[in-house]
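Retro notes, structure queue

What went well: the backlog is down to a handful. What didn't: a couple of records were mislabeled last round, so from now on we paste the full input next to the output in the thread. Example, using Glycosyltransferase family 2 protein from candidate division WWE3 bacterium:
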Amino acid sequence: MADLTTIILTYNEELNIKECIESVKHISKRIVVIDSFSNDKTIMYAKEMGVEIFQNNFISHAKQFKYGLDISDIKTKWVFRIDADERLTKESAEEIERICTENSETDINGIVVRFEVNFLGRKLRHGGIYPFSKLLVFKYGCGEIEDRNMDEHIYLTEGKSVELKNDSLHYDYKDLTFWVDKHNKYSSKEVLDYFQIVHINKNNKKLNNSAKIKRFIKYKIYYRFPMGTRSFFYFFYRYILRFGFLDGKEGLIFAVLQAFWYRFLVDAKIYERQKYM
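Corresponding output:
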């Protein structure tokens, strides 16, 4: 077992929470659930799994995670943030445990976790989706999270990070109705960040390389295309140039929803705000 506290953010995750907790319990000294007052069976299932539970009104994922760090009174060397629709595999869990143990006193202060995205029951291996990587494990006191409404990243304040060789899973059991509702809310949050970042010079030097590249592409390339056309370029890049069509019907549905629904909805909300400012 690693000297590790795992923090899971939840809201109505009764379909996911058990699998998530089960995947991390063998490597975590503590598992803490920070719940946004779920009205389903999330809390009941979490209690059955024997984890610690705190509830807090949700403002943003970043603020909720900061609350989790504060309320949990962390005593372990390492902290792991994982969402309820994510889970470790046996191989990735063992790799995290080994890296944490071997680097207790080194300058390796962070671990970048790789995810394989599962959409409508199919593993998406094309379209630039795989692998989806983010820094989620860090030594307590050596990492912080960006104060953003969307697409927030954990970054190291000192030391270096390493990336896992084994994949973990991003597998949400909820349906497309939930996906659409969630991404509608995400689009509003992304618009808030758009106006903050485009008009204010933000320093991204502390982010890991993967996060830096994604941030650069979004704000220095993608948003330079005319509104109303960039979603088409996004679809062409993902589905054609990055071979998203090889993921079958699920790949087509994912690419269309991401480009012509989610990305276009963000553009429409940006236009709406600009029009009435």
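Agreed that this is the format going forward. Reviewer comment attached to the example: The mean pLDDT is 93.
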